[in-house]
Amino acid sequence: xxxxxxLKLFATAPHPCSYLExxxxxxxxxxxxxxxNAELYSELSELGFRRSGGHLYRPHCVNxxxxxxxxxxVNQFRPNRSQRRCAKRxxxxxxxxxxxxxxxxxxxxxxxxxxxxxxxxxxxxxxxEQYETFLSREWGVTCYxxxxxxxxxxxxxxxxxxxxxxxxxxxxxxGDLAPRSLGVFAILVQIEQAKRMGLSYVYLGYWIxxxxxxxxxxxxxxxxxxxxxxxxxxK
Length: 235
What we know:
By secondary structure, the protein is α+β, with helices and mostly antiparallel strands. It has five helices and 14 strands.
């Protein structure tokens, strides 16, 4: 166990919330100079922290506790009918776990994804530097699962291996293949990958009840949520 009490935290100034219109957000970050390793990263993830590039952060809003960390207990997860259909539709895809996505091919897919699906987000407009920083390999725990259809790259899931699970960092995919539901498929693949690795959870980041973009996370049941510093299971 790491001595978490010695870690320094830094808070941002209040800024417009990216998820709830009219709300202000404050984020706390672990000291960028801290000696972070895989063990510490895992412990902080259990406490609700997430990774963005080389930074570990957690929402810390004075008047709002809407952001709730959530994770899937993979050995108890049972796909619903829609998820089973999604897995079947994508049986033809070739899945590969790779060590690096710093290529023109992978960046082109990411750039297209941001430009077509997230023009209203913090990562628009995309740049190569932003891409490499945001989806970098940190502390030797990051891997990339790519999806190919007849050798054509159609999706990438970025995930980090923690002590007890996989953290789903980000997924980007071809927007012209909507019937495949590649975002859903990416989570299903990470659930199976966690099982194969003997891990207990897939961490999905934050869920906000009032945010439509995050509603999909409650479709994976059972789901555990971090409430009052305890993981509570929702069936």
